[in-house]
Amino acid sequence: MSEAFTQIDGGGLDILVVADHASAHVPDDIDLDIDPVLLKDHIAVDIGVAEVSGTIARQLGCTAILGGVSRLVIDLNREDDAPGLLPVMSDGHVIPGNRDVDLAERMMRFHHPYHHRIGRLLDGMTSPFILSVHSFTPHLVSDPGQQRPWDIGVLYNEDDRAARIAIPLLETAGLKVGDQLPYSGKLLNATMNRHAEANGIPYLGVEMRQDLVGEAAGQRRFAEILGQIALECRNRLA
C-alpha cells in the first residue's frame, strides 16, 4: 500500500488504466487552509474518475492505478518543473496552505512514488496500452463565458494513433466528442508524455464531462463504452 496511489488489480490484460486526479484525499498532516467543501469540487478531484477507472479494470481484467491525493496537494499530471505543480490558485480559489511548502518533500512523498509505480507496471507488460482517464467541469468560475458542451474529449500530443481509432467509435456510441477539447493534449499531457509517448507505448487519453459521471448510472455507462473502445484500440495497435 502507498499513500501516493491506489492500485486495482483486475487481472493480467496488458491495459493500464491511469487516473492522475482520482482522489480528493488530503493527508491529516497537510493543511491547505481552504473551505473543506472545495474538496468536492473539480479543483480538487476529477469527479467520477475513480469509479469509472475501477469499473473498467474489473470489467476488462486489467490493472488501474489511481492517484492517492488531491491535485491540490500535488498535481501528478505535471512535469517536475511545471507551473501549477503545487497550486496556490485554482479556478479563482486561493490555496493559502501551499504558499510556503517544501515542494521537494511533496514530490518525494507523492509524485515520485506514483510515477515510479506506473513505470514498473508498464515494464511488466509485454504489449502495454494505457487508458488515461480524467474529467472536466462544464463551467469554469474563472472563465464563465467559456462553453464546454462536449460529452467527452480526446487528448494527445504527438501520438494520435489511438485517438484516431477512438473518436469515431465514441461518436457511434452516441457521445459528442471533442478532438483536443476542452483543451489540447499538446499543453496538458505530462503523464502520457512521460510514460507513453516517450516510450512508444500507445495510449488513449480522455476527459469525461463530470456531470455525466457524477452518479452510478453514468459511471457504468462510460466504463462500458471506454473499456470496449480501449480494448479495440489496444487490439488494433498491439
TrEMBL record:
Domain of life per record: Bacteria
Keywords: Hydrolase
SUPFAM superfamilies: Zn-dependent exopeptidases
InterPro entries xref list: N-FG_amidohydro (IPR007709), UCP029730 (IPR011227)
Pfam families recorded: FGase
Sample GO molecular function, one term: hydrolase activity
Keyword Hydrolase: yes
Gene3D superfamilies: Zn-dependent exopeptidases (3.40.630.40)
Designated name of the protein: Putative N-formylglutamate amidohydrolase
Organism: Sphingobium wenxiniae (strain DSM 21828 / CGMCC 1.7748 / JZ-1)
